[in-house]
Amino acid sequence: MNRKIIIAIDGFSSSGKSTLAKAISKKLKYKYIDSGAMYRSVALLAIQKKIFDSDLWNTRNFIPILKEISLKLKWNKKYNQTDIFLNKENIRSKIRSEKVTTKVSLIAQIPEIREKLTLMQRNIGRNKGIVIDGRDVGNYVFPKSELKIFMKGSIEIRSYRRYQDLKKKGEEVSYEEVKKNLIYRDMMDTSRKISPLTKSIDSIEIDNTFMSIEEQLNLIFQLINKRKK
Predict the structure, then answer these.
(1) Residue 69 forms part of a structural domain
(2) Count of domains in the chain?
(3) Could you give the CA distance from residue 132 to residue 192 in angstroms, rounded to a whole number?
(4) Which pairing describes strands 31-34 and 6-11: parallel, antiparallel, or unpaired?
(5) Could you tell me if residue 140 is inside a domain?
(6) Which residues of the chain have pLDDT under 50?
(7) pLDDT for residue 229
(8) I want to staple 25 with a disulfide (CB 3.0 to 4.6 A). Which of 30, 91, 143, 160 is the partner?
(9) What is the pLDDT of residue 178?
């Protein structure tokens, strides 16, 4: 029986989660849920609403704005990526800026935001046939997912990947700045009280520091085929 399953991919920033998740969803014709993009969208809204403009910003200042959030995810076949609409505006390119990146870990700590986005993700995946990547999707969002992957890689290679991506987009950043930000995000993701980044006991760990994307996909599709039978 070739049944539909849920594939949850967790891991550190710039560990290649999204690249893998998109390739898997395309091959299987599954829905792809970019949970990180959802948190980035909320971070972008917080920036637009000038929530962070004061050194004394308080998470409670942001909670009322949650009622204004309408998020829609739509797969863009032409560009092989997810378009994400915040209150009907396509913000796909805006959420990838380094400015948003520096704030998203702060947003991800707010329980009310995690609760709202988790409910949205579970609703999308209620009929299975999805690939989702994030920080707590295997542990918390879809704890009963049939295949859980945990991605990791050296801080140097992850920083270099992120640096190269930003340079291609025309952003003026240094490698050291990117590395410093990733170290900070790792600390924030693993130490937050609500749904921290941790490897669940039933996750399969992949360290892709020295692995090509083809090698990673070959390994993962072997695992997928075992679980779909």
Answers:
(1) no
(2) 1
(3) 21
(4) unpaired
(5) yes
(6) 1
(7) 63
(8) 30
(9) 93
